[in-house]
Amino acid sequence: MRILGINIPDNKRLEIGLTVLYGVARPRAQKILDKAGIGYERKASTLSVDEENKIRLIVEGYKIEGDLKREVAGNIKRLKDIKSYRGSRHAKRLPARGQRTKTNARTLKGPKKTMGTGRKKESKT
Description:
Distance between the termini: 76 Å
Structural class: mainly alpha
Number of helices: 6
Strand order of the largest sheet: 1-2
Helix content: 40-55%
Number of domains: 2
CATH class of the largest domain: Mainly Alpha
Strand content: under 5%
CATH architecture of the largest domain: Orthogonal Bundle
Mean pLDDT: 89
Largest sheet: 2 strands, antiparallel
CATH topology of the largest domain: Helicase, Ruva Protein, domain 3
Order of helices and strands: EEHHHHHH
């Protein structure tokens, strides 16, 4: 089953399988399946063409994948353009929501870069 060019896994429950779409997590996947009248435990391989089309129609009503990514990128660009504090943090690749950066923040900052050799020189006395 393909939705918006993304393959939905055949061997997983639909509730989990729909989460491969960017912008669809478990609660939204459950809402989609409720609207379509399909059980959470069904698998993509057992769906009829009619049921697939129902799911596809409901999913296309939400802003997901490329549209959502574009909107998020536009929001971040706007913050950078107005030179807000949050925008400057995004530009510097640092946490934007007040987290500490002396330790942690490794996800954004990347791996540690040790300065120098890490040991003091011995003096001749």
